[in-house]
Structures are given as structure tokens and as C-alpha cells.
Specification:
Number of domains: 2
InterPro entries: Peripla_BP_I, SBP_2_dom, TAT_signal
Keywords: Signal
Pfam families: Peripla_BP_4
Organism: Hoeflea poritis
Order of helices and strands: HHEHEHEHEEHEHEHEHEHEHEEH
Oligomer: single chain
Shape: elongated
Number of helices: 12
Subcellular location: Cell envelope
Radius of gyration: 21 Å
CATH superfamily of the largest domain: Response regulator
Structural class: alpha/beta
CATH architecture of the largest domain: 3-Layer(aba) Sandwich
CATH topology of the largest domain: Rossmann fold
Strand content: 15-25%
Length: 369
């Protein structure tokens, strides 16, 4: 499990680099265009800048997302380093500032794929892009009252995953493994993130059918391996042998949990989420009971593809049905019984995707409660 320690060290370096980074506000031509073309009169561009805005690349999930973006760029006959990277290191403020700076630099001739880091940050990002005449496709995080069709063509699409049910499935696998009795803890993502909220709710849904299992504690670990390691260590100090299972909101949290358990000589069943290559290997070994694959390579590539093809005028988002503008991505449950087969099909040989098949693997329109 040396890769877990290496992963934690990489995250420490990322934080140090964030402290050295500077943020830039909107200026110049982009500011002048804030009250420019209306969404229904959106201009198109022959060769827009293509950018991906994301947390960081040390996280295996985000590395796969961006690898998908690079694969799409290469499908256009461009070198993969022509993709512009906006790395926010988990800061919504930096995310927005970087987008505004790039809008100014490109004069709005931009096709942007972005996870805005948290749901409230999505609106100012979208408004900045639409006001500057750029095209944006978002992933994972937005508020329920924000919709692409309210911005004509410029807000191209939003993709998320229906996490509550898969997270409930992993929870049931965990609760069965502990015999339906005992105490579990949950380590979540950033508290305001949609997937973090849904994955915790999935656990709570499952617990309704297991009255003899107590949810001892649930804390946000911010999708962070090191923070998860620290929280799990504190859980062990506080609850000790009362902990009979651990429900993790993603794989990278799981790595920190495993390291904390190992340090105390404990072996406790855990489940995770995302289907990263390292996690799949741990599932195959039985160190993790289950994880959920969300096909980040396809998600990263198609999100960039949607923004780009809308920006070039290849299709008009406003002419598409709502289910093509807000939709769920695919999920696959991975257990020890099928981990090796899954790894061979999806990880050892990454499938070749048709980046103009925007909605092929998707799971239908997003539903709101």
C-alpha cells in the first residue's frame, strides 16, 4: 500500500503550491462583454480555446477526467497539450478567478469544461461565461435552480451522476458484510458538493433496513486522502472496536482510511466510490468490498466535446431537448467477483469513444426531488 503514502505526500505538495498561486479577476475585453451578446444571439468560433477546470491531477479520478479531455482534443488533430488546464486545488474562489482571467485572455472565444468545486459557485461561473460569449459545460456541481436552457446556447450542458442509489447499494454490501449489527462511520466529500450529499443519503437510506447498525459518526473529509486519514484516526481513538464498517464517499478517502486502520492493526470492511484503478485493484484483493465506476474518462471527454462543438456551431444546444442538456452519467458497481474482468475491459484497455456521440452512455435526464 505504498501508493497510499505517496498519494498523501502528493496532496501535501499540491496544498503548498496553492498557497503560491495568485488569483486574477475579470478585466479588459471580457469585462466589456458582460452586457454584450444575449444568449439567443450567441456567436460561434472557428477555433476556440478548449479548457478544463478541475481540482488537481494528483487525484486519480480527476486525472482520468482530464485524460478524457485530452483524448477528445487529440481526436481533433490537436496535441493534447493544447488543452488549457485551470487547476483550482479545491478553491471555489480560485476556480471563478481563473475562469474570468481566461475569458479576458481569450476575449470569450472559449469552450470550457468545468467542475465548479461546489454548487453555489456554478452560477457566477456560468454567468461570467455567458456574459463574455463563451460556451461552458459543467460537471457534478450546480444548484437545482440553475439550468442550461435559461442561458440559450452558452450554457451547453450539465452532467452529474445519480449517486444516492449506487451509494445505497455499496452501503448494503457493507451492512451485510458486518452481519447487520455494529457501528459504522462515514467519511464524506466537501459538505456542499452534490455527490457528497447524495452518497451520505444513500448510506442513511440503507440503514433504515438495519436497525441493529448504528451510524456512529459522519464527517466531511473534503475528498482528501490526508484529511480522511486524520479523521479516521480520530474515529478510531474515539470509538475503537465499536467501528465495524466504514462507508467512504470516494476512493481517495478510502486510501486514507485504509492507512489509518493499518496503522492501528485493525481490519474493518470498507466501501468506496469512483472506481479508480488503484481502488479496483484493492477490490480485487478484497481490501475494499465495493466501489462504483462513473467512467471519468468518458465524462471528461464528452464534457469538453459538448462545449467545443457548441462553440464551433456544430450543433445548437437550444435546439436540443432538456434531457440532452441535463443528464446523468453511467455507473457500474465493482465487487471482488468482477473486479478483474472490469479492470481488463475499462482500465487496462481504455475504450475508444466517439466524442460526437454526446449522450450514448448517459443515464437519462436529471430528476429533482
Amino acid at each position: 500500500m505504498s501508493f497510499i503514502k505517496k498519494f498523501i505526500e502528493q496532496e501535501k505538495i499540491s496544498r503548498r503550491n496553492l498557497l503560491l498561486a495568485s488569483a486574477y479577476g475579470i478585466s479588459g475585453a471580457a469585462a466589456m462583454r458582460m452586457f454584450g451578446p444575449s444568449p439567443v444571439q450567441a456567436a460561434t468560433y472557428a477555433d476556440p480555446t478548449i479548457a478544463w477546470s478541475y481540482r488537481n491531477r494528483t487525484n486519480p479520478y480527476w486525472n482520468e477526467i482530464v485524460s478524457g479531455g485530452e483524448a477528445f482534443v487529440e481526436s481533433l488533430g490537436k496535441p493534447k497539450d493544447s488543452l488549457t488546464h485551470l487547476i483550482n486545488e479545491g478553491s471555489s474562489e480560485k476556480s471563478l478567478a481563473d475562469v474570468k482571467a481566461l475569458l479576458a485572455k481569450t476575449n470569450g472565444e472559449l469552450a470550457l469544461a468545468i467542475d465548479t468545486n461546489d454548487a453555489p459557485n456554478c452560477r457566477p461561473v456560468v454567468e461570467a461565461c455567458a456574459g463574455a460569449g463563451a460556451y461552458v459545460s459543467t460537471l457534478w456541481n450546480k444548484t437545482d435552480d440553475l439550468h442550461p436552457w435559461d442561458f440559450g446556447d452558452n450554457y451547453v450542458s450539465h452532467m452529474t451522476w445519480s449517486d444516492e442509489k449506487p451509494a445505497e447499494q455499496t452501503a448494503r454490501i457493507l451492512l451485510e458484510a458486518i452481519g447487520g449489527k455494529g457501528g459504522v462511520v462515514h467519511l464524506g466529500g466537501i459538505a456542499s458538493n452534490n455527490p457528497a450529499i447524495e452518497r451520505l443519503q444513500g448510506l442513511k437510506n440503507a440503514l433504515k433496513d438495519y436497525p441493529d447498525v448504528e451510524l456512529l459518526d459522519a464527517q466531511p473529509a473534503d475528498w482528501d486522502t490526508q484529511k480522511a486519514n486524520q479523521i479516521m484516526s480520530s474515529f478510531i481513538t474515539r470509538y475503537g472496536d465499536e467501528i465495524t464498517g466504514v462507508h467512504c464517499a470516494n476512493d481517495t478517502i478510502g486510501y486514507g482510511v485504509l492507512e489509518a486502520l493499518r496503522a492501528e492493526g485493525m481490519s474493518v470492511p470498507i466501501v468506496t466510490y469512483d472506481g479508480n484503478p488503484q481502488a479496483v485493484e484493492l477490490v480485487a484483493k478484497g481490501d475494499i468490498l465495493a466501489t462504483v465506476f462513473t467512467n471519468p474518462h468518458w465524462g471528461g471527454g464528452v464534457t469538453a466535446a459538448l462545449a467545443y462543438h457548441a462553440a464551433t456551431g456544430a450543433f445548437k444546444p437550444s435546439e436540443e431537448p432538456n434531457e440532452h442538456r441535463e443528464f446523468y452519467g453511467p455507473t457500474i458497481m465493482i465487487t471482488p467477483e468482477d473486479a478483474v474482468e472490469f479492470k481488463a475491459a475499462y482500465l487496462d484497455n481504455v475504450p475508444t469513444y466517439d466524442w460526437k456521440d454526446f449522450w450514448g452512455p448517459s443515464n437519462g435526464q436529471i430528476l429533482y426531488k
